[in-house]
Amino acid sequence: MNNPLEKKRIIPRDGNHPASSVVEVARGTYASKSPEDENLLHAVVGWIADPLFIKDIDGGYVLVNSACANLMEHPVDYIIGKKDSELFPEEIASFICASDEKVITTEETMTEELPFAIRGEKRTYRVTKGVYRNGKGDVIGIIGIARNVTERKRTEEVLRLLAEAGNVLIASLEYEKSLEDLAKLLVPRFAQWCVVHVVEDCGKIRRIALVHADKKKIKLADEIDRQYPLEMSDRVGIAAVLRTGKSAVAFDVTEQDLTLFAKDAEHLKALRGMGFSSAMIVPLIARERVIGAITFIHDDPRFHYSVEDLAFAEEFARRAAIAIDNARLYRELREADRAKDDFLAILSHELRNPLAPALTALELIRNHTVTADVRTSTELIERQLGNMARLLDDLLDVSRITRGKVQLRKEPVDLAVVMRNAVDTVGARIKKHSFSVTFPGEPVVIEGDPVRLEQILINLLNNAIKYTEAGGGIILCGERCGDEAVVRIRDSGIGISKGMLPKIFDLFIQVNHSLARSQGGLGIGLTLVRSLVEMHGGRVEVASDGLGKGTEFVVRIPVMKSIGLAVEAPKKEAGMKGAVMADSSVRRKVLVVDDNADAANSMGKLLEVCGYDMKIAYDSEEALDLADSYLPDIVLLDIGLPTRDGYQVAREIRKRYPGRRILLVAVSGYGQDEDKRKSREAGFDCHFTKPIDFASIKNIIDKLPR
Hints:
It is a single chain. This protein is an alpha+beta fold and 706 residues long. The chain folds into four domains: 20-148, PAS domain (Beta-Lactamase), CATH 3.30.450.20; 154-332, 2-Layer Sandwich (Beta-Lactamase); 406-513 and 521-558, Histidine kinase-like ATPase, C-terminal domain (Heat Shock Protein 90, 2-Layer Sandwich); 589-702, Rossmann fold, CATH 3.40.50.2300. A five-stranded antiparallel sheet has the order 2-1-5-4-3, with helices on both faces. Strand 9 and strand 10 form a beta hairpin. Helix 7 (175-186) runs antiparallel to helix 12 (307-366). 31% of the residues are buried.
């Protein structure tokens, strides 16, 4: 090292007492003053528990105390006169020499942290050093002292790792990915190998993660796992930890450890080749159940785990197990929720199927001269079937809304039109009450989904009808208040208690909890109302003075800021009060396809009565055969057919007759957005959900070009 300063080499007079040289250096002379001074300094240096050292300007050690000698793992006599390059690995020696040169050049005190591996144990020392001067003030070397900060550094690293692990665990609810990310976090900061296994419900052990910096070693481990898969019956290792829930540790992996773990001679040979030096297997325990295990391994002989490392590993595993268990519970809930939705869809489908032929039969009855009593009975049946259909719609809607599956089709809508359509829909059900409507005095335009807005008011009106005795009053009032469209629905019915008011919009909550629930209902209508109103950016409120004192619901939805076009009331098709005959000059050919014989036959009969030419098929093959020979103009095609479903039949028809215009109408008990999307993709022109309003069917048939 080139240094303009004069280089002086301090050599101890007595190798057994190197501290005596410090006295000479301190005095700046080689003459000893008094033995008492030397003894005192020697005692002080030896008494200091932290490693202390002095080097000459060339980097040779001239004094070390016993603590420093222990750190270097050499006797004092061996260290004196030697340089760092002769005592430490190259990378550490180079680092120390560079910092020494900086201290001598700048003549400033420096503090740095150095990692050491002492007898296989990792330690960190905080070293403070500065220049050493003679009596004339010349720099003649470096003096320094080191302090063991291993525990502090370990604590800091443990806290840092645990904090980072917490971030990893909350980043994803897919626990397999979280476990793999955790393993990557720990390699190589805490282990050269990190392996995670979980126990499946069937009792099998499954590996989730295997991480090592060397990809070649990962391939070797994969091959060993393939040849020697883990079994819960294994006597030692991971299986034993999974059975007992207790950690297994080999601070120093021995030949005996490998022999116990190996299943045969080849397995033992392979394990030897991995070079494991220290290993820990800790269980993952959640709710007093072992759900897996994490294995930490060193394959560097310089490093071995300690009791403190085991404590950290177990704390780490405890936190990971909680996160894994939560992720599993979330997955189970999600799967249960999906199963519930599938069940509701199937339930709706199965309940809609018998409704369809019943409503069609009612249409047939209307085409005959009937007595007033029969007409009243048919209206009653139609009304109750309509109630059942609405309950099914609500049941599916609340499921879709809670999962965020409903998409609003927004457009400018006049509040008065929404109110009028809602009143028309409830129709006869409100005739037994004293009912009054007040429409807004000016156009009040909302940007919203007209179907869903009507659904809000229909549900609230039905609610008022349900809980108000015959002859009671119901008021519907719409107006603009500032920037909001406001609709009030007030009734004189049974009212709501103060304790029930905060819960009234919760799912499955009903006002009437008596055993005689004559009004029926599932307790989901008001939940739908609140969700749909909020999806439009509004809010709904409820007020009641108590039981027997009526109820008022208030819906508030923002009005449009500006209106660029006039909004017309949509023209609703009049319901069929007795089917209307088709145009006799055009005999539309209709093919009805449904495996439900009652549904197919009743629809076919109604089409025939109304003057259409029709044929019926009860399965997909018969439908395709008839399509070839009959060449229909319209196909009313059920989706849930055996062998080949309606989607497949529709695709086949489109494929067979690419140039022929055939109106394909999907008829199904499934009416969710996803079902309608599939219909469009399969080639259907429109999708009707059972039970079907025959007026709608007739309308699309009669609009076909002649």
